[in-house]
Design brief:
4 strands
Length: about 525
């Protein structure tokens, strides 16, 4: 059935031209807010890591000072645990919470999440746990988007869009990569593409990056080098690296999920009891293997040094970094894994170039290329977001020469990892997210969704009254050739019609799924 509404209804506003323009400046506003929060977060983490390395370097070799440092770690553990009890929605990287927020399954209190996540991340960086800043940056950006939405008194449906914009702003500010922020927010978080959404998300990511890089002058966390395009014969090595990254991506996920399962068995005295092991390992690493501490900046500097590290050094760093990160992640400590993942991908690519590829005649000149390819391959194999992986490496290298080989390694890694029947990283985390960690979104509200009728799809040529609309779903408007139609039962649907429908928040995901299947283009025989 069709639903007629006046010009002030949410449905009319949803697709009105004025609303689309509003989304642009709202997206930019979210970008500035999210970029500011994440920039302060980055600066706090950098200062904490610098203080950490200064203190542990001074304490190394002195038994009394080393004992004092372990006592300091105990104090930090208590502080982080208290913050996690105060706001449970900050546990882990934060990306699954943003996924659930956009899906309408979560309603985290932004005014508590932002200060708690900020302080937790800073304290964990000071402690030296192997965690990244990108996941928390996405959550901080998403909560900044939610704060803007609440300040502007927007409805729940529009709030989700602004949370997506904030996630893009957070990723952009964290990696100094605005296109990566856009694609990550769309491919991994919102999982829906429409012109107004893409434009508003892009405005948010660009505004965030401009604030971080041009206004505040913060330098990129990591930059990669792509020397020149590979000879054609060496593309067989690129394919082999893609196969390896796909297998390692599946192994990475299974190991991380197993670590979570082991820590889940600890039920008494949580979260402090789960954090004891990662904090103890951080104290040991500070004096025995400092390169493993924090996200991995020290390893990136090692890979960019003029002297190429030895193969065994690369392999040892890869195994050590993975095990330390798995323990920190499995404990539920409020930090991310994306930057450690990038570092591990670089190590995989470097080890592959230094070992098998070099044995098959690869020139040492191309070592930096395979470091970059390893980042894309492992990212794609773990996250299952190959397009984001390609754009991330493009922005980190600034080279179009990398496009073909990066695309090849990302696609192969994606396919191989998918064939192992291993869950994608963030999809698995979203599925196991505990609703008790945050306030569940209120029930009974209505929300809006859109879909586009594909050429040759089941809906093309159908009358509105003949469409088996999902339960509780009503068609509101149809956008056709730039005009908005209020449909009746006799309206015939055409290819490329954009349908706006309304459903209850609980029914919306099912309605969106069923309608997207009916709208899928089909090849007619």
């Amino acid at each position: 059935m069709a639903e007629r509404g006046d010009g002030g209804s949410p449905a009319a506003r949803r697709l009105s031209r004025r609303f689309r323009v509003t989304l642009v400046w709202e997206g930019a506003l979210v970008g500035v807010a999210g970029g500011a929060v994440v920039t302060l977060y980055r600066l706090a983490l950098s200062g904490a890591e610098g203080l950490l390395r200064g203190l542990t370097s001074a304490a190394a070799g002195d038994a009394f000072l080393m004992a004092a440092w372990f006592a300091t770690l105990a104090v930090l553990l208590v502080a982080v645990s208290a913050l996690m009890r105060w706001e449970p929605a900050t546990a882990g990287s934060g990306i699954p919470q943003v996924d659930a927020e956009v899906a309408g399954r979560f309603d985290a209190p932004w005014a508590r999440v932002v200060p708690a996540k900020f302080c937790e991340g800073t304290l964990l960086a000071l402690a030296g746990l192997s965690l990244g800043r990108e996941g928390p940056s996405v959550q901080l950006g998403g909560m900044a988007g939610k704060a803007v939405s609440r300040g502007l008194r927007r409805r729940r449906g529009e709030e989700r869009l602004l949370v997506t914009c904030g996630a893009a702003a957070g990723m952009s500010a964290a990696f100094h990569a605005p296109l990566t922020g856009v694609l990550f927010a769309l491919e991994e978080i919102h999982r829906q593409f429409s012109a107004p959404l893409i434009i508003s998300v892009m405005c948010s990511a660009v505004a965030s990056d401009f604030l971080v890089s041009q206004v505040l002058g913060v330098t990129p966390v990591v930059s990669l080098v792509f020397v020149q395009d590979l000879p054609h014969l060496d593309y067989a090595l690129v394919a082999a690296l893609g196969l390896l990254c796909g297998l390692l991506g599946a192994l990475h996920n299974r190991g991380m999920f197993a670590a979570q399962g082991l820590f889940d068995r600890i039920v008494r005295g949580t979260p402090a009891s789960r954090l004891v092991l990662p904090f103890a390992l951080a104290g040991i690493a500070a004096f025995a293997w400092p390169e493993l501490m924090c996200g991995g900046d020290a390893i990136v500097r090692l890979l960019r040094a003029p002297q190429t590290p030895a193969l065994m050094t690369l392999l040892a760093l890869l195994v050590g970094k993975y095990l330390f990160t798995a323990v920190c992640f499995g404990s539920g400590a409020p930090g991310g894994t994306l930057f450690p993942l990038v570092v591990m991908g670089a190590l995989v690519g470097g080890a592959f170039a230094w070992g098998p590829a070099r044995a098959l005649g690869l020139s040492e000149t191309f070592f930096p290329n395979f470091v970059a390819l390893g980042v894309a391959g492992l990212f794609s194999g773990v996250v299952r977001a190959p397009v984001t992986a390609v754009v991330l490496v493009f922005e980190l290298t600034g080279s179009l020469d990398a496009l073909l080989s990066v695309t090849l390694v990302s696609v192969i890694a994606y396919v191989v990892s998918s064939l192992t029947n291993t869950d994608a990283f963030y999809e698995h985390l979203l599925a196991r997210l505990d609703p008790g960690a945050g306030r569940v979104a209120p029930r009974g509200r209505k929300d809006l969704g859109t879909c586009v009728v594909g050429a040759g799809s089941r809906l093309e040529g159908s009358l509105v009254r003949d469409v088996p609309w999902p339960d509780g779903t009503r068609l509101v408007t149809i956008e056709r050739d730039g005009s908005e139609l209020v449909p009746t039962g006799e309206t015939r649907l055409r290819a490329l019609d954009e349908l706006l429908f309304i459903a209850g928040e609980d029914e919306l995901p099912d309605a969106r799924l069923k309608l997207s299947v009916m709208c899928e283009p089909r090849v007619r025989s």
